[in-house]
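INFO batch 0412 | record 1 of 1 | parsing
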Amino acid sequence: MPSSSSAPLPAREYGGHQLFNARVFFEAQDGGMRPGKAGVAFQLDALPEFARAVTAALDEAQVRGLVK
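INFO prediction complete | emitting tokens
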């Protein structure tokens, strides 16, 4: 990821549900950080399953030499 972006991982409530909301933020022309369109949101109780899936994807990408 470029140095001007980051991916904060906030949890918040929306519509009575606790959500995991990962957004890619970018540095705006005024120097402030703004949320971009890229991201994912789902109920917070699915976070462990998501973490397992991401870990498995990373493991596979490493085996294939796609990432270090």
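INFO post-check: The mean pLDDT is 86.
INFO record closed
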